[in-house]
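In full, the data.
>
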Amino acid sequence: MSSPTPLEPLIHPLFDPLFDPSTSTFTYLVACPSTLSAIIIDSVLDFDPATSLITTTTADSLLSLIRSQNYKIVKILETHVHADHLTASRYLQTKLAADEANGGIKPEICIGKRIVEVQKRFAEKYGIPREEWEGAFDRVFEDEEEFSVGELKGKVKHLPGHTPDHVGYLVGSNIFCGDSLFDPEVGSARCDFPGGNAHALYNSVQTLFSLPAHYKIYIGHDYPSPDSRSPQPYTTVADQKRLNKHLKDGTTKEQFVNWRQEHDSGLAEPKLLHQALQVNVRAGRMPRDGMLKVPLKMPGGWKL
């Protein structure tokens, strides 16, 4: 007797585009086809740095999609504390908890357990009160911890390198790798943020490459060249191993680390770095005083 075919999730944006062009971010909606229980991975708030205006157009479109598919959101997941966009996790949690269509469920906001060291680092840098970040996430996952999405099983994979808290989520034959890898023509993530480490990222990619060749690797961002192609949410393990411009099969750790460190030393900081970090270590909550801090840079140490 043949064994039953493993249950595979319904995954958006395969069915609907969930790509934010202003930050080049994919948000994933992953659902159990039997129960319509679902999770959200790496959501986005709209933020205009010129006016400091936060809007929810992207998040509201996600909510409309959830309602149209009759999904019940049970968890809102973050792969890491993002430095290039503000998370919509708290906004989505509030809206979904009040929505009768979500069955009275208040989805947990979840992240990997090393979030605490990242929160402490940036709380000190930006002067964030402890009561605004401590316990901000409803659940912090252990490495290899399993969780349920209806009849689906998910597993947490620690994938450090881009940031120390970085995790991926394995659901069926799919892994949502955040900013560990990108499309093969784009390559890999930068490792110059506090706690980032190119050696660790190389090892994390080997973890991804150890998965079966047909498994799909869903990426956090895509940066296609203008007019070359549309953003692509995933490639297979086999494609990444064969084609990734930074880390294909045969690339040694020494080669990758030397290139990554040299390349990262010349990168500009993300344009939303300071705003994103202060909101994201709070799990999407806004500062109680409504103020975000942006450090000044004085050339040559010049001061008033």
In short: Residues 10-277 form a domain with the Metallo-beta-lactamase; Chain A fold (CATH 3.60.15.10). The mean pLDDT is 94. The chain has one domain: 10-277. The longest strand covers residues 152-158.
